[in-house]
Amino acid sequence: MGQVVAALVGGLTLGAQYALMALGFSMIFGILRVINFAHGAFYALGGYVGYAVTGQLGMPFVVGVVVAVAVTALLGAVFEILVIERRIDDHLATIVLTLGLGLAITAALLIVFGPRAVAYHFPIEGGVAMGGAVVPYGRLVVIGIAAIAVAAVHVFLYRTQTGRGLRAMADDRATAVTQGMRPKILFPVAFGIATGIAGLTGALVTPLFALSPSIGDQVLMVSFLTVILGGLGSMSGAVLAALLIGLVESFTGIYVGGQVAPLLLFCVVLVLLVVRPTGLAGREVEHV
Amino acid sequence: MRVPRATAAAVAACLALAVTGCGADKIETAAAAEEGGPCVVEIGTLGPLSGPAADFGLSMKGTADLAAYEVNQAGGLRVGDRTCTVTVHPYDTGYTSAGAANAAGDFVSQGIRFVIGPLGATEVTGMKPLAGRNDMLLVANGFGRDALEPKYPLVFHVAPGPSVWAGPIIAEARKRFDFQKVTVVATNDQSGSDIADVNAIRFREAGLPVTQESYQRGTQDFAPLVSRILSTSPDLVDVASSPAGDAGTMIKQLRQAGYQGAFCRLGGESTAEIARVAGGYEVLGNFFFYSMVDLDDPAMKELSARYEQFAGREATSLTLGWMPGARALLRAISAAGTTTDTKAVAEELRADPLDDASLGHGVWTGKEEFGVQQEMSFPFYAGFVQDGQMQPLVRLEVS
């Protein structure tokens, strides 16, 4: 029983982290049609900003998380305005540009904070006993905040004027523009929100694990996997896929072992994509 | 698209000229160095210089830097009738076999023939073929079971692996800590599994039941692994050669999940880094580890101060522990009187008495385990953290 609870909570924590990352990744792709290869680097940057504010300046953890969100969101929006905007319809150029930004962020972190992992810890110690397993409070906090963040993004996209505008841009950019939607405002907003979410995830999750400059590489890979499984551009699909991947990773990790777990995870994804090539919630696009 | 024949022929001729030109330039440079031009001995060094295992790679780079600094401060390295400057060329492998192979290619293209490194077993495996084909001399560290092989006579071991020191350290640890059941955790690649296998054998030889767990390099969340470990109820967890960042995270998560037992690290020494990531020495609780040197030893303090003088940061015990190997390599280059003939340098290195100014007298080992006597073995230490407090190191000898 203890192992089932541990697997469930572990899977939900991983799923929450992947969901937040995939949500932003999917948002940028769905609205801007840009694959953001700097997404993992924004995650690492969020962690380091949180660490700098709490660990080095001595501010409360919450302040660190808020500053991390603000910094990553601002950087993302500025990058969209100054760089991406100029090459928005050139897919290869945006891939190279975001890849370059990711490398630049990682290199900057390496120079400023050094290559070794830094001591960035969650402020709440201890855990709660559940069915024979001890679940750290930190994990419960992450799951809770991730759920709130996902709900907030959903409300923003479906209940606000700006959100509707963003969805309209995602559905049919040309028509949306003729209806008065302004990509020069909406695109930086979408990019900023997405990178802000990556920063939030980094600031929130890395204290539970470890924080080093290249930490975003693996996260980027899983985010990519998640959005493909969920259906490129589908935000609900991304969240669903993230939870599925988190749970598969956790349960196979416990019951099968670390040697085979990654292989099994990719097998599950492979089978799902063969059965459903558009992903869990993706749509088929008719080519004319 | 069709390319006119004349254009294709012209392009091919230009490429051929360019390639020939590159090669000629390289040969000329090497020849000039032998004939009395400015003499520079370039030492390659490689390892993970970023990421969770950066502590290891930077320590190895630190060794190469310190050895070069020492020689250059003393006026240079005497090679035949010339005095040479020693420079260091580092390469970040990302702790991968492919990264090490790329480094070997880079060194070959730059004419670098002497290398301090690589570091991990998987890196050594990745580098040996290319290094062997190009007569590159490696003073490597990898703890892999095939780290040294008779078919690679230019590969030396800068220090012995756990097969030499794990047994004595376990015996010493049992005098202090009571443990009956062990779990050994490592990455599922050669750098992890080779060391974990050897450690498991040594624990079993000590009469202790052992379970082994592995994980994918790059794992962030060790919760599934923690659950698996807890399900076997060990009272000692050996994080073996896991990168320091991973080991620290694992220890932190095991403590959060309620694990009360001891930890050990029978792998490369990174205690300070592990403690920092885990949340401090009190989180480690009872912990023992292999260390190449005693940082409180006056000779080590002096060497450490020398390192700090030029590097501007503290030396790790790995940096200092690998110094005798680096010094022996430079001595051998000097004795052989050549900066290009690695076979002649290897001959001199095999004959080196391993008398080191800082670590004392060492012995050549490796014949029994690898079939070649090319492993430098100096006295080593068992380190202990008891109830969260660091204890004085215990000196042990190679048996």
From TrEMBL, chain A:
UniProt keyword ATP-binding, yes or no: no
TM segment ranges: 6-27, 34-53, 59-83, 95-117, 137-158, 185-210, 222-247, 254-275
Keyword entries, A-Z: Amino-acid transport, Cell membrane, Membrane, Transmembrane, Transmembrane helix, Transport
Membrane disposition: Multi-pass membrane protein
Pfam families linked to this entry: BPD_transp_2
Compartment(s): Cell membrane
Similarity comment: family membership: Belongs to the binding-protein-dependent transport system permease family. LivHM subfamily.
Name recorded for this polypeptide: Branched-chain amino acid ABC transporter permease
Organism whose genome encodes this protein: Pseudonocardia adelaidensis
From TrEMBL, chain B:
SUPFAM superfamilies: Periplasmic binding protein-like I (SSF53822)
One Pfam family in the UniProt entry: Peripla_BP_6
Alphabetical keyword list: Signal
Keyword Ion transport: no
Signal peptide limits: 1-24
Domain Leucine-binding protein: 41-367
Record PROSITE patterns: PROKAR_LIPOPROTEIN
Sequence similarity: Belongs to the leucine-binding protein family.
PANTHER family, per database record: LEUCINE-SPECIFIC-BINDING PROTEIN (PTHR30483), PERIPLASMIC BINDING PROTEIN OF ABC TRANSPORTER FOR NATURAL AMINO ACIDS (PTHR30483:SF6)
Protein name as annotated: ABC transporter substrate-binding protein
